[in-house]
Amino acid sequence: MTLPLSWTTLVDVASLAAALQADALRVVDARATASAAVRVMDARFSLADAQSGAQQYAAGHIPGALYADLNQDLSDLGKVGHGRHPLPDSAVFAATLGRWGITPQTQVVVYDAADGSMAAARLWWLLRLIGHDKVAVLDGGLAAWQGAGQALEVTVPEVVATAPYPGHFDLAQVVSADEVQARLSQAAGWLFDARAGERYRGEVEPLDRIAGHVPGALNRPLGLNLRDGRFRPAAELRAELQPLLGAYAPGQAVMMCGSGVTACHLLLAFEHAGLHGPRVFADSWSGWSGDERRPVAVG
Predict the structure, then answer these.
(1) What per-residue confidence (pLDDT) applies to 4?
(2) Would residue 257 show up in a list of annotated catalytic residues for this protein?
């Protein structure tokens, strides 16, 4: 296998399995250290039961994987006014990466239970945000791994922690509510909402203060980017997504969702399709709708 690896969007089960089996990249037992060339991260999470992801990880995970908790590691729930999953502080996240033994040379592969939307794509985006390009989501997640007959383990790897990751969040890639407000008069095609259609239309709202969507946002439910739990071919997605942009360049587009988690999955779809550069409205609907002064659209 050619070294070093450089997976930056998606990686398939066969490629990851081959990497983990290769002697030079072995991270399959408790001897895995910070020098491992591949760091596998398990990001399984359920909004209905915040403890279930860690419990599932303990019951069995991809060999060598560490666990990343959406609430504890990938968010700062102590922040107010930024939705249900506010971003962690850059320095705190850098220290977390060091605890996981992730350095700029590490190829990171993230997975969750299935399609990457909860919360593998969130960790993928946070790593990119701090300047780490060598990170990919396992296409099809744990379901694809097990479907291919690959083994799980219950051993938690012993990792030698490193110094905090030498990077800082590029906050220019994070869109604020004020910026969204300032762009409301622009023609549609710059703001994309990854939530299910019934939530976008305001028919139901199981989590946030009020139902509806940001005026002018286009609905692109994340499921449209998938087939059988995996991302559709890049050319197919590009043929659908590029016309939605209208006159906008990909770098002018903004992704949002309920709390800034599945927005990252939609961003991954754009990147996979070769439409590079969209940004994320991290506060998303939970942050936007938390301020009653902001306009809301339904239907």
Answers:
(1) 61
(2) yes
